[in-house]
Structure formats: C-alpha cells, structure tokens
C-alpha cells in the first residue's frame, strides 16, 4: 500500500487511487435523528463485514445517540491545549493512518479550533475522501451557504457555520432525515434534544412551528433538487426529467405582456415555483424607443417577482422559446393568444401549435387578451 506525508509530518496509507464516496444525512434542525441514523447504518455495514470507524461523534448528551455509538470503533480525538484548557477536535491524521473503509463524521459544518491545519470540518472530510476512504456525515439544512440569508429571514438567526453548496453537489448520496414539526417539538419537550433549561427558550425561538415548517420544506426541496440533477444526468439527451415546476412567461412588445407576467407570477406562486421571462427579438429589427421602454418595464416587473429575465435574438420565435424552455427545464409556459389573423394562422400556423410540436412535456397556458394594433415580436 502506498503512503503519503501529511502536513503534520506523519505518514498515512492511501487505500486506492479512487476518491471515497460521500453520503450526507441532512435534516431541518437538531434532534431529527441524523446522527442516530448514521450510526444505525454504520452498525449494519459493520455486520456485513465493512471496516467502519467513528471519526467524530457529537451526542450532545442524548442518551439514545450515545448508546447507538457503542460497539463501533471510535478514533480518539486530538487534544489541543489552549489558554489553560484542553480542547478537542477530530484527529484527521489518525483516521488517515487507520485507513478504514468507512468513517462516520458528525457535524460537517463545524469550525475547527483556530490554528489547525484546516479551518472547517468539511475540509478535513475532503482530505479523507481524497485518500479513498468513504465518509458518512451529518448536517442541518440551515448550514448550507446559499440558504444563509433565507434562513436568517425565516428564523431571525444568522448561522455562522456554513458548508459550501459544492459539498452537497459533489456528494454521492444525500438522505433527508424527516420528522414532522410536531414530533420534533415533542422530542424537545421530552428533553431528548436539549437540557431542561434550554427547552422553553428553544420553543419560543428557533423551534417555533412556523420555522420548522419552512426549514423542513427547504430540506426536502434540496434533496429533490439533487434527485432531479441525477435523473437529468442519466436521462438521454432531449428528454425532460423534472421534479420541480418552473414557469416561463413569453413577453413581446404587445401591451398585454404585463398582464401575462402578472398571471405567470400568480401561477408560479401557486406552484411555489421559480419564474422566468423571455423576450425574443428578431435579429434584423430595431425596436422603437417606446417598445424598448416597454420591454424594460417587463424586465423590471419580472425582477420584482424575483424572476429571471432572458433576452433572446432569433427570427424563429417558437424555436427560441423551445430552446429556452429546454435549457431552464421549464414545465409551464404562459403565452398570449395569437395576434395573427385567421388567414395568417392557416398559412403560417400559430406559435401555440408550433410549441406543442416542439415541447412534448410542457403545459401551455394561453391567456386571452384584447386585440390591438401594436407590433408583436
């Protein structure tokens, strides 16, 4: 077996050239059972003959969790003298030297004691994975970097310890440990999460039911995103595999575009879906000042709805819309009824008919509007 020199000067074995596999157990809040489930799976794999060790276990005084850790080999923590105190951290070098097949590591978002080789525990995990060792780890959804501002708005708590989104993107598997808000609050009242003196304070703050409902949705949605990405990666090109709804509004220089945008925003709100807006401009046609201002108005309105505005240049409007729909994995399209005359539709066909042919798995919402004499692009 090959060896490698660590930053601390000790040698550790490299299991293989392959990167270890990473499985993350994620939950909406402390106490849902992430660590317990991780330990449970660790025991099952040990029973199957897999070499499993515990790299870092945080029980937070929970008896059931501590009992579940019994029977698994635990790598001793590294002791760090600091200002007359002895602090402890996960001993990454000891894990590398032990070189198990699988290591269980709690609290992925943890910040290490200052002065360590790496600032964050997830960075230690990356070193372990690079050595070819599989890792099971745990984290709560509020620690995900991209959700930091949203979690602060929901709960009023600014989360200091965060994990980059790429860590979840690169994980081989993500498992949500899900319980209802009511069940979690009951566990809290029974003293299964925090000590007695912290229970009421927690119920009045972070563990309010409305907070837990929102955090639970975030956790479930995050896993749905990962499932969708994996499904798309394994789906033949040109085929859709969407779990989430996504709404696309097609605007033009017709005055009814504002109405379409508002209708699309309501639809997106009902579906709890992101909204996209596309404006397709013919390549050889210049917009008048009035038309340009109107499109700017549509773009501003789209941003007010927290949507994404897309400018597209093409002489084939239907193909352009279809291309945008495929790129952004759109499931719902909102368009206005055709402004062409009956004879023009018979001669050239309508935008709706063409989109139906081009997009087989997308719902079209055709919004009736009054005819006018403006020019549509």
TrEMBL record:
InterPro entries: Histidine_kinase_KdpD, P-loop_NTPase, Rossmann-like_a/b/a_fold, Sig_transdc_His_kinase_KdpD_N. It comes from the Bacteria. Keywords: Kinase, Transferase, Two-component regulatory system. One of its GO terms (cellular component) is plasma membrane. SUPFAM superfamilies: Adenine nucleotide alpha hydrolases-like (SSF52402). GO terms for molecular function: phosphorelay sensor kinase activity. Coiled coil: none annotated. This is Sensor histidine kinase KdpD. It comes from Hassallia byssoidea VB512170. The keyword Kinase applies. It holds the Pfam family KdpD. Residues 18-227 form the Signal transduction histidine kinase osmosensitive K+ channel sensor N-terminal domain.
